[in-house]
Specification:
2 strands, mainly alpha, 4% strand, single chain, two-stranded antiparallel ribbon, Multidrug-efflux Transporter Regulator, Chain: A, Domain 2, 112 residues
């Protein structure tokens, strides 16, 4: 299973572990360490991973296994990225508001 070829709605922990080349216990451990990563569970308590869960796990895997972050460092990095994205979204909203006001001014000037 390739990350780009995810077609199912839900994946088992074994499938996800195979995808990343780690043991299922590593997936369970990361779940306990990263609040951003909380896969759902079915009525039997089996974890069911969505494509969104796998994308988050891919980012965690990249930070820990490929970039060499510690668990704490990866947790901080994910939190920083979340804040940066929120800040970017706020700037975008402010810029859209300014653009709208400038367009209103332009339209009012054209009426004169």
């Amino acid at each position: 299973m390739e990350l780009g070829n995810l077609t199912k709605l839900y994946y088992s922990i074994g499938e996800v572990a195979d995808l990343f080349g780690v043991a299922p216990s590593v997936i369970r451990y990361w779940e306990s360490e990263f609040p951003q990563f909380k896969p759902g569970k079915n009525s039997k308590g089996d974890r069911k991973f969505t494509q969104k869960d796998i994308a988050v796990l891919n980012h965690i895997h990249h930070l820990v296994k490929e970039k060499g972050f510690t668990i704490e460092g990866a947790r901080r990095e994910l939190e920083n990225e979340k804040h940066e994205q929120r800040d970017k979204n706020e700037v975008i909203q402010k810029l859209k508001s300014i653009k709208s006001r400038l367009e209103d001014i332009k339209n009012n000037l054209q009426k004169i």
